[in-house]
């Protein structure tokens, strides 16, 4: 087991040292290595996040899967194109998946990374055999005025805005502060480009074209205990997706993979094997 975890440690060390590298002088996005043996699972981080946030989940899944950590453009070691559209990010992800062969993968995306993963499943369905979206809203959650206010705030007071936004994502104030510090390592222009893209992307209509099994994993904050799934699905853009299997993980904030990595890995594993996660049975009331 120790030997199998060694690649994980190397990846973590490399990302810790190089996470602040200027993406404009970095390499094109590429997957950060594969570890473990078995069916391939590709993990995609979210906006202002790190691939290392997946390490707890990856360590668990690597017991019986090959795990690939993908990078979004402008994050970590990956360069940022002058212009960025969702299709560009999906193409970048497609190339990273292709680095590890033609086998259809289980594709897992967190938050904005889930939007990119969904776009990839739509553009290249032959590459994806199952899709897992973690804390991903398929439709914009802010109106035009609020979007512009957030973008303006990012321009006028970058650090304070990230403190407020990422602070609200943490399970507690300490985690929120840590997430904000990591996000602040991104170039402000890169962050604003991604925020604008995320806030104006609506895949709720196109998602009905998905032809792969879909697991939707939400935190207790995104899916309140007293809310039925149809209402939650409508709010987040999943209404009408009969194939979507919802899972609510208690004791989690937005960064589910940090808060309950083993529970998330277990849900992914059962879904990848064609089963329905136990929590989905209770959650889809």
From TrEMBL:
<keyword id="KW-0378">Hydrolase</keyword>
<dbReference type="GO" id="GO:0016787">
    <property type="term" value="F:hydrolase activity"/>
</dbReference>
<feature type="domain" description="AB hydrolase-1">
    <location>
        <begin position="41"/>
        <end position="266"/>
    </location>
</feature>
<dbReference type="InterPro" id="IPR000073">
    <property type="entry name" value="AB_hydrolase_1"/>
</dbReference>
<feature type="signal peptide">
    <location>
        <begin position="1"/>
        <end position="19"/>
    </location>
</feature>
<dbReference type="InterPro" id="IPR029058">
    <property type="entry name" value="AB_hydrolase_fold"/>
</dbReference>
<dbReference type="InterPro" id="IPR050228">
    <property type="entry name" value="Carboxylesterase_BioH"/>
</dbReference>
<keyword id="KW-0732">Signal</keyword>
<dbReference type="Pfam" id="PF12697">
    <property type="entry name" value="Abhydrolase_6"/>
</dbReference>
<protein>
    <submittedName>
        <fullName>Alpha/beta hydrolase</fullName>
    </submittedName>
</protein>
């Amino acid at each position: 087991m120790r030997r199998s975890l060694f690649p994980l440690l190397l990846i973590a060390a490399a990302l810790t040292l190089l996470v602040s590298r200027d993406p404009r002088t970095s390499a094109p996005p590429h997957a950060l290595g594969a570890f473990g043996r078995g069916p391939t699972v590709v993990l995609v981080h979210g906006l202002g996040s790190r691939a290392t946030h997946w390490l707890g989940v990856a360590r668990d899944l690597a017991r019986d899967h090959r795990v690939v950590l993908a990078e979004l453009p402008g994050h970590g070691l990956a360069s940022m194109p002058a212009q960025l559209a969702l299709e560009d990010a999906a193409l970048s992800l497609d190339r990273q998946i292709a680095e590890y062969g033609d086998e259809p993968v289980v594709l897992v995306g967190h938050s904005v990374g889930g939007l990119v993963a969904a776009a990839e499943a739509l553009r290249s369905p032959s590459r994806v055999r199952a899709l897992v979206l973690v804390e991903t809203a398929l439709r914009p959650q802010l109106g035009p005025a609020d979007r512009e206010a957030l973008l303006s705030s990012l321009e006028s007071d970058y650090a304070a805005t990230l403190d407020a936004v990422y602070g609200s994502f943490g399970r507690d104030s300490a985690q929120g502060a840590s997430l904000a510090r990591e996000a602040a390592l991104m170039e402000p222009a890169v962050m604003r480009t991604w925020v604008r893209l995320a806030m104006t992307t609506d895949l709720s209509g196109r998602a009905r074209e998905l032809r792969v099994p879909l697991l939707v994993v939400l935190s207790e904050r995104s899916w309140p205990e007293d809310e039925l799934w149809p209402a939650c699905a409508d709010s987040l853009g999943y209404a009408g997706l009969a194939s979507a299997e919802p899972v609510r993980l208690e004791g989690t904030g937005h960064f589910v993979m940090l808060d309950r990595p083993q529970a998330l890995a277990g849900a992914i594993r059962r879904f990848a094997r064609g089963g329905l996660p136990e929590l989905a049975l209770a959650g889809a009331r």
